[in-house]
Fold:
Amino acid sequence: MIKNLAVAISIFCIHLCNAQNVYLSKVEKTNDNTDKFLYKKAETITDAEYLGEIEVQGFSKDDAAVFSLIYKKAKEIGANTFSLKPFENIDGTPQPFNPANYKIALYYTPNGKLKDQDGKLYIFASSDKEQKISINKKDYLLAPRSYLTRDIISGEAFIISTKKLLGSTIKVQPKANKENLYFQVSSLKVKSDTSGVGGLNLKSGDIIGLEKSYAEFLSLIYTKINSKP
Structure:
């Protein structure tokens, strides 16, 4: 019984350490817009309407689930843009970003004031695995929760590979040098075999295309690294 209790306490502690709370910590006003997107607010935009704040407490490796909760909270008050609101030290200087506790400021930005795309390729690492990739035969090492960017040149294609056995290789051809492309390199995935023989199908280093709203959220909470090989 004591052993079972110890196991139960251990499981509880694991869940507690991974528990995450996403809530509206401040609501200044609401907006009745029906925009479906939630983009990062450009620092140069000064006439966005401030609506409130979201606070995220607790660390999670499932960034997609976290963003889903943030998105729902943001839409409750009609926000379509967001920015990171750093905690401050006693002297007013911003504290380093902490993925286990951070605040996001919410805004409504008129569509005509939204930032244009900057013509870059974004490659995000996974949340918990280091990943080696190749872009046009140049190797890069992505630490967990990091990303790199490459300028898009009109007419230039990108060949992206995960550099692993059973890994993925894709070729992307941007239509214009002003559009953005977003991809994430996932960690090792294992799925059950459906052939009837049994066993596992391994797929290592998948490359996943990301929607802009989610990608811009990752660019907020991940660390940008030097894109030189």
In short: Confidence is low (pLDDT under 50) at residues 1-18, 192-198. The first strand starts at residue 21 and ends at 27.
